Amino acid sequence: MKSIELKLGCDHRGYDLAEKIEKWICPIDDIDVDGPFDVAVYHNVGIHENKRTDYNDIAVKLAEEIWDNSMGILVCGSGYGMQIQANRFHNVRAVTSRNEKEIEIARKHNDANVLCLGSDFTDFSTAKKIIKRFLSTKFEKGRHTKRVKKLGNGRGK
């Protein structure tokens, strides 16, 4: 049974990479072909054409749709602007990753639920490896649960 609720968003600098990611994750050319992941619900929050866009607006759109069991991918030039904006939302734990090991640790120890990619630093081949690890790695819970809960209230208590 498919279980992942996934959102994708990008600005103009991340548009080309995000388009490739979307076609890879959710192939629509053949309706009988499933994508490589257990994506039950998919939503592209924009942009839908390559036009100049403030990354903030897209990060906000995606962050507003992140709740308990959903995950997101944001793509801009560096990944950092999207990460900073998205992390202003209560249920979001966004990280910018450049490799598989970084995202694996962020998922296991921090329950990261939004992956930010920088198209200026990440080619499609590398992005696929990072996304595979992001969507397949589970949160370890245990001692990490208390720490992740502290992230949610903004005060560290």
Q: What's the CATH first level?
A: Alpha Beta
Gross morphology is: globular
Mean pLDDT score:
91
CATH superfamily: Sugar-phosphate isomerase, RpiB/LacA/LacB
Structural domain count: 1
| Content of β-strand | 15-25%
Proper CATH architecture: 3-Layer(aba) Sandwich
The parts where pLDDT drops under 50 for at least 5 residues are none
- N-to-C CA distance: 37 Å
Helix content percent band: 25-40%
Read across the widest sheet, the strand sequence of neighbours is 2-1-3-5-4
The DSSP helix count reads 6
How do the SSEs run, as a string of H and E?
Answer: EHEHEHEHEHH
What would you report as the Rg, rounded to the nearest angstrom?
A: 15 Å
Largest sheet: 5 strands, parallel
**Which fold does the CATH topology refer to?**
Ribose 5-phosphate Isomerase B, Chain: A
Count the beta strands. Answer: 5
Oligomer: single chain
Structural class: alpha/beta
What are the SSEs and their pairings?
Layout: E1 4-10, H1 15-25, E2 39-46, H2 55-63, E3 70-76, H3 80-86, E4 94-96, H4 100-110, E5 114-118, H5 124-136, H6 143-153
Helix pairs in contact: 2-3, 4-5
